[in-house]
Specification:
The structure holds two protein chains of two kinds. Chain A is of the alpha/beta class. In chain A, 17% of the residues lie in helices and 27% in strands. Chain A has helices at 67-76, 91-100, 112-115, and strands spanning 2-6, 8-11, 13-21, 55-57, 83-85, 104-106, 121-126, 130-134. An eight-stranded mixed beta sheet of chain A has the order 1-8-7-3-4-5-6-2. In chain A, helix 2 links the parallel strand 5 and strand 6 (104-106). Chain A starts with a strand and ends in a 5-residue tail after the last strand. By secondary structure, chain B is α/β, with parallel strands linked by helices. Chain B is 42% helix and 12% strand. Chain B has helices at 5-12, 17-33, 51-67, 93-108, 137-145, 156-165, 194-208, 223-236, 254-258, 270-280, 300-310, 327-335, 338-344, 373-382, 392-401, and strands spanning 38-40, 44-46, 76-78, 133-134, 167-169, 183-187, 213-216, 243-244, 264-268, 290-293, 320-324, 348-350, 367-370, 386-389. The longest helix of chain B has 17 residues, at 17-33. The interface between A and B is medium-sized, with 24 and 22 residues.
C-alpha cells in the first residue's frame, strides 16, 4: 500500500529509491565528499553517512553558493542522491539540482518528517508533482 | 509566474541548451521567491569564479556550457579569480591551470575577463533605478545603496543565467516595497577613517543580518569609504541594501528611508565601534608574515597612499606584501609610477585575484595584517589565517618590520 502526497516541483524529473531522512540542514560546499557521496561536516547528523543513490529528505540547504557546483558534481559523478525532498528548497540546492538534473520537490501537502522514515521506499515524480511512499514494513 | 511566448520557447530549448538551463534556473528561483514575471536587466556580474568556489566540477560545467554555444546577450563582467594572469605568483601548478580553464570558459561565453569585484570603478556604472543582476556581495550592496540601482544578491549561476538570457525574476530589491529601511542606526561616535567605517560595518552587519539598515550621522564618507563600509555590512551580515540619510540617493531624508514604517533605533557609540574592531582581530602572535590590502580591489588613490608609505623603504625579508587591484587600475598605477614604487619596496601589485578566494596560504604564510573588514572577517575560515585588522599605516609598518604594533 502506498501513500501519495502532492508537492511543488523545484527541479524536474523522476526517480525512486530508499529514503534517507535528516532533520538538519545540509551544506554541500565543504560538507559532502564529491568522490564518495559521504557527508563530511563535523558533528553533523549525517557525518560519515553516504547519500549516494538515496532519496534524501532534509529541511533546506545551507552554506555558500559553491554548494550548487557540488550538487551538480555529485549528479555528474553518480555519487549523489537520486532525488531530494525539502521543506523549503533554497537557491543553492535549487540551482545545483537544475544544473545536475536531480529531481527536487518541496512544499509537500504533509510534513515529510511525519510520513517518511529511513528505509521507506519513495518514488519522486517531479513532473506531475507528487511523491509516493511505500513504508518499509510493507516491502 | 507568467512567461511570455518567447520565454516559454527559451525554456523549451528553442534557443539551445545553455539558454534552456539558464531559463530553468531563473524560473525555479522565480517560483521560490514568488516573482510574478521575468524582467530585463541591463548588465550582469558573475561571481563564484574562483576555483575555491567553482571547483573542478564547476569548471567542467562551465566548459560544457561554453562548448554548447552559451553566449551572454548583455554586458557581463567577471568577479575575482584565484590567480593573477599577468605573472607567476608561485601558486600550485594544478590550481593555476584549473583556474585558467574556468576563466577561459566564461570568456568564451562573451564575459569580460575584468576579474574584479569593483566593476563600477572601471566603466560599468548602473544608473538609479536601473535593473541589473550582479553577484559579489560587496558590489551588490554598492550598486543598490550608493547608486540606487536595483539588484538582488545573486549567486554565481543565477548571475550567469541573467547574462545568458538578459532576464531576472521580478522579486526582492527590484520592487519598491522591498527597499524600505528596517532599523535606524544613529552613529554617535566620531568615524575617522576607512578602518573605522569597516569596523562599524562589521558590527552593524552582524546585528542586522539580511535586513535593511538606515544610518543617521554617518559623516561624509568618500566613495572608497562607502565601498569598504558596504563590503563589511555584506560580509558580516547579508546586507544587500543600506540607506544613509543625506548621503545615499534613496534617502535624502529620514522619511524617505522609512516611508512611514515604524522602526527601532540603535545608538552606536565608542563601545559598539570597539566591538567591531574586536570582531575583526583574531591574532595572538605579533609576528606578521603576510600583509594584504585591497579587498575590495583598491582604487588608484588607495594605491597611491600605499606607495607613499613605501617610498624608499623595503619590506622585511620573510614578509609577503600583496596589494590587490584590477587590470584597469593597475594600468594607471603603472603609468603614474606607483606600481614601481611598491614593487621596488618588495611588494606586489596584483590583478584579478584576492586573498580570500586565492590561495596565498600555499606560500606558507600564517598571520595576516589587513585594513580590509571583509578580508579580516573571512580569512580565518577561507585561508586559515590569524588576523590583525587596522589602518594602512599600521599594515605597512607590519610589512616593513614583520611585527604588528597598535
Amino acid at each position: 500500500m502506498s501513500i501519495r502526497v502532492k508537492g511543488r516541483i523545484i527541479s524536474k524529473g523522476t526517480a525512486e529509491g530508499e529514503a534517507l531522512v535528516c532533520t538538519q540542514p545540509i551544506g554541500f560546499n565543504f560538507g559532502v565528499n564529491l568522490k564518495t557521496g559521504v557527508v563530511t561536516e563535523h558533528n553533523h547528523q549525517l557525518e560519515g553517512v553516504s547519500i549516494k543513490d538515496k532519496i534524501l529528505i532534509f529541511p533546506y540547504g545551507k552554506g555558500s553558493t559553491g554548494g550548487s557546483y557540488v550538487v551538480y558534481a555529485l549528479a555528474k559523478y553518480n555519487t549523489g542522491p537520486k532525488a531530494m525532498i525539502n521543506l523549503n528548497t533554497e537557491t543553492i540546492i535549487a540551482v545545483g539540482a537544475i544544473m545536475g538534473k536531480v529531481p527536487v520537490m518541496d512544499h509537500l501537502e504533509k510534513d515529510p518528517f511525519d510520513i517518511i522514515e529511513n528505509g521507506d521506499y519513495v518514488k519522486v515524480n517531479a513532473v506531475d508533482g507528487y511523491i509516493e511512499i511505500i513504508k518499509k514494513g510493507d516491502n | 509566474m507568467l512567461l511570455t511566448d518567447i520565454e516559454k520557447g527559451m525554456l523549451r530549448g528553442e534557443q539551445g541548451e545553455p539558454v534552456k538551463v539558464a531559463m530553468e534556473i531563473l524560473v525555479a528561483l522565480g517560483e521560490i521567491y514568488g516573482a510574478d514575471k521575468l524582467i530585463p536587466v541591463k548588465s550582469a556580474h558573475c561571481a563564484g569564479l574562483s576555483l575555491k568556489s567553482h571547483g573542478t566540477a564547476g569548471m567542467e560545467w562551465a566548459e560544457d556550457m561554453a562548448k554548447k554555444g552559451g553566449k551572454v546577450r548583455i554586458p557581463t563582467t567577471m568577479n575575482v579569480v584565484g590567480i593573477d594572469r599577468s605573472r607567476d605568483l608561485k601558486l600550485p601548478k594544478e590550481w593555476v591551470s584549473h583556474q585558467q580553464r574556468i576563466e577561459d570558459a566564461y570568456e568564451a561565453m562573451g564575459c569580460y575577463g575584468t576579474s574584479s569585484c569593483v566593476p563600477y570603478y572601471y566603466g560599468f556604472l548602473p544608473q538609479k533605478g536601473e535593473h541589473v543582476a550582479w553577484a559579489e556581495s560587496s558590489a551588490v550592496v554598492f550598486v543598490n545603496s550608493v547608486l540606487g540601482a536595483r539588484d538582488n544578491r545573486e549567486g554565481g549561476p543565477s548571475a550567469w543565467a541573467a547574462g545568458i538570457t538578459g532576464l531576472t525574476p521580478n522579486y526582492g530589491l527590484h520592487l519598491d516595497e522591498n527597499r524600505i529601511g528596517d532599523t535606524l542606526f544613529d552613529v554617535q561616535v566620531n568615524i575617522k577613517s576607512i578602518t573605522d567605517y569597516g569596523a562599524l560595518g562589521n558590527y552593524v552587519g552582524k546585528l542586522t543580518g539580511e535586513k535593511i539598515p538606515v544610518f543617521a550621522n554617518l559623516g561624509h564618507p568618500t566613495t572608497d569609504e562607502l565601498v569598504y563600509f558596504g563590503s563589511a555590512l555584506a560580509s558580516a551580515g547579508g546586507v544587500a541594501l543600506f540607506h544613509a540619510i543625506g548621503i545615499t540617493p534613496e534617502a535624502p531624508t529620514l522619511e524617505d528611508a522609512f516611508k512611514g514604517r515604524k522602526y527601532e533605533t540603535v545608538v552606536i557609540t565608542e563601545k559598539e565601534l570597539a566591538q567591531g574592531y574586536k570582531n575583526l582581530n583574531s591574532a595572538k602572535s605579533r609576528d606578521v608574515d603576510y600583509v594584504a590590502l585591497g579587498c575590495p580591489h583598491f582604487s588608484l588613490n588607495q594605491i597611491k597612499e600605499v606607495s607613499d608609505l613605501l617610498m624608499g623603504k623595503h619590506v622585511k625579508d620573510g614578509v609577503t606584501l600583496w596589494i590587490h587591484t584590477n587590470m584597469a587600475i593597475k594600468a594607471m598605477a603603472k603609468q603614474f609610477g606607483y606600481m614601481d614604487i611598491i614593487e621596488e619596496a618588495g611588494g606586489i601589485l596584483t590583478q584579478d585575484l584576492c586573498t580570500i578566494l586565492g590561495t596565498p596560504e600555499s606560500l606558507g604564510v600564517h598571520t595576516l595584517a589587513t585594513n580590509s573588514p571583509k578580508m579580516a572577517f573571512y580569512a580565518p575560515g577561507s585561508n586559515g589565517f590569524d588576523v590583525w585588522y587596522g589602518d594602512e599605516y599600521k599594515c605597512i609598518q607590519a610589512a616593513l618590520t614583520g611585527k604588528w604594533k597598535d
